[in-house]
Amino acid sequence: MATPADRLWKNARLATMSGAGVVERGAVAAKDGRIAYAGPEAGAPDAAEIVDCDGRWITPGLIDCHTHLIHAGNRAREFELRLQGATYEEIARAGGGIVSTMQATRAASEAELVTESLPRLDALMAEGVTTVEIKSGYGLTLDDELKMLRAARALGEARGVRVRTTFLGAHAVPPEYRDDPEAYVDLICGTMIPALGGLADAVDAYCEGIGFSPAQTDRIFAAARAHGLPVKLHAEQLSNSQGAAIAARHAALSADHLEYLDQAGVAAMAAAGTVAVLLPGAFYFMRETKLPPVEMLRAAGVPIALATDCNPGTSPLTSPLLVMNMGATLFRLTVEECLAGVTRNAARALGLDDLGTLEMGKACDLAIWDIESPAELVYRIGFNPLHARVMGGV
After folding, report:
1. CA torsion angle 82 88 94 98 (round to 10)
2. How far is CA 282 from CA 13, 111, 191, 256, 257, in A?
């Protein structure tokens, strides 16, 4: 006789986010933290524990694949300045922006960073997030970047959530290197990346006029790949720097933002299998008008993910549900695209092939919803219908 599953969720409707599509009278079984069955209830295995979902919908646990969750302080004053007409670039060049958060983050201890960041993580988890990517990038010294990465790991341990860490030392040139940015790139490539050890799962950079040039980004990515680390890129947010093509050349997991992405960049991403991570929270908060080229991405078959971009300056957002609504209303994504953007494609943007769909063998991370159709997850604003969040079958 077959060994029973540990737990079975029955009398559910499944949005599998896989080729199986929707299962109206479905069930999901967990064994040793993984999905042992996902399909029609009639074929479900026996289980030691049975949970009646009473007709609720089950999706994969949501994945926030681009956040700057770890930081100290806030930039509410800069928000006021932008309302008065100042641009993001003007604020950054005047010593605000990333450098402002850098100063607060450098001054904070690791424990203080964890304490200040936990409420942001809790907000994500309350809306069904089971996996979150967290970047460094507000320390901009080796010790402070490592402090941020350790804090990110500690967040995951404190809440039992899956955390993927990304080293973003190339977020901005710190003030002490303002007159010699190449020396800072040397530090990133020669000292910081080799010192990451197991603290980082990927390396990111900000390729932009107020960030790092294409040539500098290329150097940083070459160093990352030489140390066995995959790469991601903030690309084409404020201008077309051809960053997406550089990312694709290094087989990047994702290129993110992409408002100014052109056809050549789309083609490069498609050829490399690089995911397009769209960040409508930043688009909204900065009152941008240049839309990312969604139609070109669709036509080329580039997977589209969505994320909060939770950060203190341009997207102080901790709601994946609102992100889906913004993806639909601002970028005209379909309901299916929005749901795939925070499940299947978000997993791909993090290089996690065992998440994001309800399929046998995948991690049993589930979100159970009090809804009548998946469209409600995209349609509602300021309403959270999460009934239960399951992580690793528990």
Report:
1. 120
2. 33, 28, 31, 11, 8
Residue 18: name the closest of 372, 364, 343 by CA. 343
Name the CA radius of gyration of the chain, rounded.
21
Strand partners, 277: 256, 305
User: Which tens digits make up the pLDDT trace of 175-212?
Assistant: 999 999 999 999 999 999 999 999 999 999 999 998 99
Is residue 11 classed as helix, strand or coil in its secondary structure?
strand
CA 110 vs CA 44, 116, 162: distances in Å: 46, 10, 19
Q: Helix/strand/coil (H, E, C) string of 221-264? A: HHHHHHCCCCEEEEECCCCCCCHHHHHHHCCCCEEEECCCCCHH
- The answer to whether the beta carbons of residues 314 and 122 sit under 8 Å apart is no
CA angle at 58 for the pair 53 and 62, rounded to the nearest 5°: 140
Query: Residue 100 contacts by C-beta under 8 Å, 6 or more apart in sequence?
Result: 73, 75, 78, 313
pTM of the model: 0.96
